[in-house]
Amino acid sequence: MNPILRAFEGPSVPFSVEMFPPKGQLTLDAARLAAQGVAAARPDFISVTCSAGGSGNSSQTVDIAALVQDELSVPGVAHLTCVSATCQSLDEEMERMRAAGVNTVLALRGDLAPGCQPQDFHLAKDLIPILKERGFTVAAAAYPEGHISCLDPRENIRHLKEKQDAGADFFITQLFFDNNAFFRFREQAQAAGVTIPIVCGVMPFLGKGQIQRMIFMCGSSLPSAIIKLLAKYEDNPEALRQAGIRYACEQLVELARQQVDGLHVYAMNQPDIALAAAEALRAEGFRP
Ligand code: FAD
């Protein structure tokens, strides 16, 4: 059985971390160091983004996911976007993943660069069955507060269920800062017949600029508790960063108390975030 799916059946809440591959000034060695640091938190898997936020850094996603598995013995998940892919480029990418021993994929639509048109795939649900046919374990994205371009919450749940029906094995959510939004979403998903695990994605806020970008990119709501922390530590970036990590840790512990299916930390290649999250869960008895 795939070790990630096995973790969903284990006694403690699965804990995982997202990282991004080399981009800009970040070399492969720097990515290796970040992966080593993140792996010290003993996650059940590490997922590796693919050109997230239009960064264009997709060529090393599979290499980093393989590095995580081969050098650090942590299951790796490769993110894969389909909106710019053709059937042929998808075939080649699946071959590359197979050859590298990466068997779990987060199947995504991705976002088109302005002025570009989708190629052979329009939605993530078109990609999922192809990956399943080739024997991959497949995760898909879930949006507790709805995708930024989906205005109707019922449509959001319908799209979620379609991804399960297309063969997804589990979901990982977009980041959210308000746990109650997730609990409402979980209830609606269950009522609609969603039965596969929904892993909660949590990202600490680290600064005002970062949080502004994130909420406009994702449409996640900003609780007043965070607005107050942003105001309180406006002139002290390090204190604000620490407050953001603490807030995320408290969020994770509350989610674990409410018996969510899994916890995924957007650690942004900063090992101290992954370590703080794992430690907070351990201190409350949610991790061995
Ligand atoms: P889809 O599920 O295909 O949805 C796309 C849009 O279409 C949504 O608005 C949805 O509501 C709508 N829709 C879905 N089904 C239907 C339907 N049947 N009829 C009409 N409309 C429909 N992006 C990257 O580029 N790289 C990454 O590595 C990356 N990692 C991510 C990780 C996670 C956990 C998440 C949550 C997102 C990630 N993203 C990443 C962002 C993602 O690519 C974007 O949010 C993208 O806009 C949607 O991708 P999707 O797979 O959710 O698409």
Overall body shape = globular
Lateral arrangement of strands in the main beta sheet: 1-2-3-4-5-6-7-8
Q: Give the helices and strands as they follow along the chain.
A: HEHEHEHEHEHEHEHHHEH
Largest sheet: 8 strands, parallel, barrel
- CATH architecture level-2 label: Alpha-Beta Barrel
Strand proportion, as a percent range, falls in 5-15%
- What is the gyration radius calculated from CA atoms? 18 Å
Written overview of the protein:
This protein is α/β, with parallel strands linked by helices and 288 residues long. It has one domain: Alpha-Beta Barrel (TIM Barrel), CATH 3.20.20.220. Helix content is 46%, strand content 14%. The chain has eleven helices and eight strands. An eight-stranded parallel beta barrel has the order 1-2-3-4-5-6-7-8, surrounded by six helices. The longest helix has 21 residues, at 237-257. The protein is globular. 46% of the residues are buried. The model has no long low-confidence stretch (mean pLDDT 95).
Structure in a nutshell:
The chain is α/β, with parallel strands linked by helices.
Strand and helix layout:
Blueprint: H1 3-7, E1 15-19, H2 28-39, E2 45-48, H3 61-72, E3 76-81, H4 87-100, E4 104-108, H5 124-133, E5 137-142, H6 153-165, E6 170-173, H7 179-191, E7 198-202, H8 208-218, H9 224-232, H10 237-257, E8 262-266, H11 271-283
Parallel strand pairs: 1-2, 1-8, 2-3, 3-4, 4-5, 5-6, 6-7, 7-8
Bound molecules: flavin-adenine dinucleotide.
